[in-house]
Structures are given as structure tokens and as C-alpha cells.
Amino acid sequence: MTMKLITAFILSFIIATVVGKYLVPWLVKIKAGQKIRDDGPTWHMGKTGTPTMGGIIFIVGVSIVCITVGFSEMLRGEYGHIFVLLFSMIYGAIGFLDDFEKLRKQQNLGLTARKKFLLQLVVAIAFVFLLRRFGYLAPNLYIPFWGKTLPIPEVVYFVFAAFVIVATVNAVNLTDGADGLAAGTTLPVCIFFSSVAFFWGREYLSIGIFASGLAGGLLGFLLYNFNPAKIFMGDSGSLFLGGAVAAMAFAMDMPLIILVVGIIYVIEALSDVIQVFYFKLTGGKRVFKMAPFHHHLEMGGWTGKKWSEKELFVLFTGISLLFSVIAFAGVVDRFSY
């Protein structure tokens, strides 16, 4: 198991590094540059024209790993990593459509919010049914740290699952607003799932291979996405990541752990919800200088310190790593109870 997880990480890192070396200049050549939103921080406008759709870098890496390193798992009838990969890729395809629309229209508005939501909801419901059909989850809710599982009505579970998946996907998408932020935040999350798979045993190895492969791919992607970014992951990358995080949590039957391991996603999403709600409630007042939360810090909210993108990367990745360790402590002994 150890060698497979290490091999998945290294192979994906190498592939992502090589893909990025050729993809970045090609995207520049075809002028696949991103339009920066006018209502964002003014200093982000200098990034206009930076190539987008860079999520292809880590998507290729983890895809090849699942087929090669994960091949032996498929031979023994284990397809968890393939289900997770396909689910993530479908979300990535939705993001690609959004990126394509933005490039076609030469503005930062792609698919409508309604279209994206409906597509995401349909995919989420289909994925949960697939996992249920192949025995990867049951309508029981595992409570991390407590070590208990609560049975709930199946219909309620499906509604809950669809909500969690769509919320996670969009929360990760919100986190992708500064150089390296979404990739850096998600890297410890992937390492968490890989580590848990290792300790839980062979039954979860396939999910561990996917998680380890995605971690390696993200590290390779950061060579090009770390500030100053040479490429953005785009919605094709961020929606893939959101789908991957949600899919791994459900495939390992512990969706509630997203609240802990994905604490940054939670903070980013809540800040956006609070901002919109308070703005409408008060007729124009704001809690944050700008939402989501990383923009608030960039603009010197609360303390007056304006966080640079490098500082935000270190802060958010560090917090994600800390809470990944906490989450690991809360679930590693699950089958010891």
C-alpha cells in the first residue's frame, strides 16, 4: 500500500510538471487569457490575460495515475477511484463550459448561476445513487470524533448528500481567488484522505490512490500557479477540485469531515453568504470589505494589514494543514470503536 500511494504522488507530480511546461505556452499562444472581474481588488486587474483552464495540468496527472497505479485495484473489482475521477471530471466539464463561455464572450461571466446549479445538482444526485448502488455508502451518517453512526431515512440522506456536494463544489470555487490559494488549501486535504485510506486498510486503497495522485498533481500545478501565477486553474479546475473533495468524503462514507478538513472552504462560503445577506438586510452595509474572506484580508479588513497573495497562501495552506491533522485524529480510529 505504501509504495502505491507514494508512486501515485510522484508519478502525478512528474506528469503535471511536464504537462504544465507545454500547456502554459500553448495557452498563451492561443490567447486563452482570463478576463479579471472589475469589482475585484484593483491590483488584480494586472492579471488580465493570464492563461486559464490550467486545471488540465493536475486533471491529466491524477487521471493517468488512476488508470496505471490503480489498475491492479480494478483487476480485483475495486472501482472507487474511477467513480471519484469520473464524478470530478464531470464537474470539471461543467467548469470547462463556463471557462469557454468566458473566453468566447471575453468577459468574466460564463454560464448563468441557474444553469450551473441545475447541472451540479443533477450530477450530485446521480453520483450518490451510483455510490449507493455499488455499496460504497449507506443512509447512515458517521459522526467524526464521536465514533458513532446515525441511521437516517434514505430520502433525507440523498437530499443532504446533494446539498453537501453542491455546497462543497461552490465553496472550493470561491476559494480560487488568489494565486495558488485553492491548490494550496486542497493539497493538505488530499494528503488527509490518502493518509486515512492507508490506516483504514486495503478496502480504501483505491480512494487513497486518487487522493495521493491529486496531491502530486496539485504540487506540480503550483509550480506554475504560485504567485506570480503563470496560469490559473479556471472553473474547470476549481469545480473538479470541489467535486473531488466531496466525492472522496462520500466514497469513504464520512461527509461531515468536510466541515473540519475543509475549514477554509467553509469560511470562504460563509463570508460570501453573510456579506450578501447583511447587504440586503441593511440596504447596502457590509460586514467585510469584500467577500469572499481572502479578499477581505487583501484589502486590510479589521486589522488594517493588507495581506499579499503569498502571505494568504501560507496562511490558508497552514490552516488547512492544521485542520487536516485535527480531522485525521477524529477519524483514524473509526473502525476501532
In short:
The chain is an all-alpha fold. Helix content is 67%, strand content 2%.
Written description of the protein model:
The protein is mainly alpha-helical. It has one domain (2-259). Helices cover 67% and strands 2% of the residues. The chain contains 13 helices and two strands. Helix 1 runs antiparallel to helix 2, helix 2 runs antiparallel to helix 8 (205-225) and helix 4 packs parallel to helix 8 (205-225). The longest helix is centred in the first third of the chain and has 28 residues, at 2-29. The two termini are 23 Å apart.
Overall morphology: globular
Category by helix and strand content: mainly alpha
Q: Describe the biggest sheet? A: 2 strands, antiparallel
Record field, number of beta strands: 2
Q: Determine the fraction of residues in helical runs and give it as a percent range.
A: 55-70%
Q: Total number of helical segments?
A: 13
Low-pLDDT runs of 5+ residues are none
Number of domains: 1
The strand order across the widest sheet is 1-2
The helix-strand sequence is: HHHHHEEHHHHHHHH
Mean pLDDT: 91
As a whole number of angstroms, the C-alpha radius of gyration is 19 Å
Strand composition percent: under 5%
Q: Gap between N and C termini, in Å? A: 23 Å
